[in-house]
Amino acid sequence: MTPIDLANPTRFLALSARVLPWLAAATVILLTIGLYQSAFAPDDYQQGATVKIMFIHVPNAWLSMFVWGVMSVASLGTLVWRHPLADVAAKAAAPIGAAFTFLALVTGSLWGRPMWGTYWEWDARLTSVLILFLMYLGLMALWRAVEDPSRAARAAAVLTLVGAINLPIIKFSVDWWNTLHQPASVMRMGGSTLDRAFLIPLLVMAIAFTLLFITLHLAAMRNEILRRRVRSLQMMQASQRAA
Amino acid sequence: MSLGPYASFIMTSYAAAALVVATLIGWVMIDYRNQTQRLRELDRSGITRRSGRSATDRP
């Protein structure tokens, strides 16, 4: 099975229908394991029990950027290869990415209040993630504003690729500027600085949330394909009535 | 398992995550139900795809 085979929406619907129950089951199992490990992880010597917030904050922060990355690849698919499912993938991912980014911001604020003494600080990392969230909302508004999906797709693809400039800014903001947000502690040169007691639950939760995204994304793509079928059939119905 | 003096911040974080994830799952499921229902209605009114298949056919 190659990406070309999946270019056929009907074939994609058939394959995703078979894969989705397995993905959903794997997500539930991993989330259960991750939540159990998070609940019984030891307290950090500095953060105390608030370290538990990291087990949901960090996966959501990673996914906020990962989803935009997925949308950027899909946008290339729309503009360069004109893959029929590329704009379906980009459109379906946007609300899910916005939700993960919202969660990263909320849980970050809830961690920041007891640890930093403030819910919000206009530092480079927090501000660039807020901009990412606003870009998700802008993209969703653009999709809704243009009725014809193929016309909306090209504009959204360009906006997505321009917005991808924000991804390295988010990633390296803690290195380039003096921020309140701490530097990278998991994905860094020289390996993770986290103890295994925190690293393992964090990685399990990160994989679980990534599986959750893939599951929701496939389901949302199926819905988008069905929505487009509804639209084309309604147009056919309208033209039959007019004739 | 003691959550210490900041238990409310921890509980609120997990509750927010649960709420957002539940909303996403609900949105996807309701959207699927709405689209398949519309396709069935179109099918009943005799509108079929150019391939000749029923709009609600599984491939």
From TrEMBL, chain A:
Compartments reported by the entry: Cell inner membrane; Membrane
UniProt cross-references to Pfam families, sorted A to Z: Cytochrom_C_asm
Parts of the chain that traverse the membrane: 20-41, 61-81, 93-112, 124-143, 155-177, 197-219
Protein's GO biological process: cytochrome complex assembly
A Gene Ontology molecular function term of the record: heme binding
Superkingdom: Bacteria
Membrane topology summary: Multi-pass membrane protein
GO cellular component: plasma membrane
Cytochrome c assembly protein domain sequence ranges: 6-181
Predominant localisation class: membrane
Keywords: Cell inner membrane, Cell membrane, Cytochrome c-type biogenesis, Membrane, Transmembrane, Transmembrane helix, Transport
Stored InterPro entries: Cyt_c_assembly (IPR002541), Cyt_c_biogenesis_CcmC (IPR003557), Cyt_c_biogenesis_CcsA/CcmC (IPR045062)
Entry-linked PANTHER family: CYTOCHROME B_B6 PROTEIN-RELATED, HEME EXPORTER PROTEIN C
Function description: Required for the export of heme to the periplasm for the biogenesis of c-type cytochromes.
Protein family: Belongs to the CcmC/CycZ/HelC family.
NCBIfam families: ccmC (TIGR01191)
Protein name as catalogued: Heme exporter protein C
Source organism per UniProt: Bradyrhizobium centrolobii
From TrEMBL, chain B:
Single GO biological process annotation from the record: cytochrome complex assembly
Cell compartment(s), UniProt: Cell inner membrane
Keyword set, alphabetical order: Cell inner membrane, Cell membrane, Cytochrome c-type biogenesis, Membrane, Transmembrane, Transmembrane helix, Transport
InterPro entries registered for this protein in UniProt: Haem_export_protD_CcmD (IPR007078)
Membrane topology designation: Single-pass membrane protein
Membrane-traversing stretches: 6-30
Record-level GO cellular component terms: plasma membrane
Job description of the protein: Required for the export of heme to the periplasm for the biogenesis of c-type cytochromes.
Family statement: Belongs to the CcmD/CycX/HelD family.
Record-given protein name: Heme exporter protein D
Organism: Bradyrhizobium centrolobii
